[in-house]
Design a protein that fits this description.
Layout (H helix, E strand, L loop, with lengths): L4 E5 L7 H17 L8 E3 L13 H12 L2 E7 L7 H7 L10 E8 L7 H12 L9 E4 L6 H16 L2
The protein binds flavin mononucleotide.
Length: 166
């Protein structure tokens, strides 16, 4: 059981806590799947910024191709207005309907516990629309629970890796 695991970080701010969560969960999934680590294992949207709206931008087009090629995606965003960030949505609007062929895990970081279901209610349907298999619950991380992230990510990976494997 092995797979390419790619993290997509949809936070407009670079090196955010969302980024850390995505890296941590992707690393745990690689461990659980027996997949090698790689320097090319994430697509960070922060440095791309408004370029995601430029359909002539070849760097963004290349990042879309990497997303299409991934076998397991960890797609992470801060919770913005009870859903995901607009930056992430603008980037994913470049992925054709049904174009993803692997699996995906939606991940939200948020400050409000009453928005925990947003990951399953709003984020999972977006990834399914793009074609990804979404066999897991989404992961909603409360800011107040970030201290337990390592254990949370390891437990999530141990529980779900075999459902995400190609
Ligand atoms: C524009 C904006 C909208 C937000 N909306 C929500 C929200 O609806 N629900 C929530 O729980 N947190 C909301 N937050 C808080 C962020 O989700 C929270 O600060 C997040 O943990 C930040 O992640 P980061 O440290 O990776 O940037 C919002 C923050 C911003 C900047």
């Amino acid at each position: 059981m092995s797979a390419t695991v790619l993290a997509v970080i949809g936070n407009p701010r670079p090196e955010s806590r969302t980024h850390h969560i995505a890296r941590t969960l992707a690393a745990e999934l690689r461990r659980a799947l027996g997949a090698p680590a790689s320097d090319l294992d994430e697509v960070d949207l922060a440095p791309l910024g408004s370029r995601v709206l430029d359909y002539d931008d070849t760097t963004v087009a290349h990042e879309v191709e990497r997303v299409l090629a991934a076998e397991v995606l960890v797609v992470a965003s801060p919770t913005y207005k009870a859903t995901y960030s607009g930056l992430l949505k603008a980037f994913l609007d470049r992925v054709g309907t049904g174009a993803l062929t692997g699996s995906a895990v939606p991940v939200l970081l948020g400050g409000a516990p009453n928005h925990a279901l947003a990951v399953d209610a709003h984020f999972t349907p977006l990834l399914a629309e793009l074609g990804a298999a979404t066999p897991t619950r989404g992961l909603f991380v409360l800011e107040s629970q970030l201290g337990a992230l390592d254990q949370t990510a390891a437990a999530f990976a141990d529980r779900w890796a075999r459902w995400l494997a190609p």
